[in-house]
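User: structure tokens for this one?
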Amino acid sequence: MAIRRVRVPQPESTAPDRPTDVRTASSPANFLPFASYTSVTGVHTSLLAFTALFLPRTSVSFLTDLYPWQSKHTPIASDEPHRALRLLTENPTRTVAWMCVGAIVVQTWWASWLRGWMIEERTRGMAEGNAAEQTKQKLQRKHWDDLRLAAFGNAILTTLVVSTIYYILLVLFGAPIASHPLETSALALLLSLLTSFTSAYVLSPPSLRADSEALVSRLTWIRLFAELSPRTPIERAIVYPAAGTLIGCWSGAIPLGLDWERPWQAWPLPPAYAPSHSSPMHTWYPT
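Assistant:
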């Protein structure tokens, strides 16, 4: 006798679908307040241009003329610069020094915004959790806010250390050793402010401690500045301007070898102005 197989219909499952791991523009890994970032970046670019083109020409910048050790550019017969250009080129040390003063103010303001966005990115995943997670988020934000002054001090110390390294590299690349030490030091400090200050303030400088937090910090710095592999918009906003600064400084040294004998070719004006303009332009490519 043949046995007939009867197919029993399976009941439809009423369980909700499992959430898929799809990253969207609002996920923590891709978090970026586009409207705020665009407005802050525009102000940051304008302020850096002001510190490079207008601050060294203001009346307050002439206070540095009280110091006799500064070298001035000696004009020649073919020099007929505009008055604005003359104010920028007649004393390269004063010009780059005031660019550094303006850069430390502007970069501190810019790094504060990036640090706030980074904290919001890290705590964004806890915002929709239970009450315990939200309380933990508030405590973490308060802890990070209390460390602002310590982070600023560590960033300043890191900037000074990196400026010393830049000074040695500039000398190795052909900067004058004995004749223009102040100009070279000012350029090294400017490069350090545009490359290392923001990253040290936002990420905290790398440490040689043996704990897991220091290890993660070192690996992050290696990934960003050795491998050039930023993963989030905030990291790209840190790495791209730093890379643009170094590329701009290297390209700005090209006019120094031209035999034009123009006042704007005085050391270290071309390598100082090129990164001041190329660095803010790279902040527009975070996404």
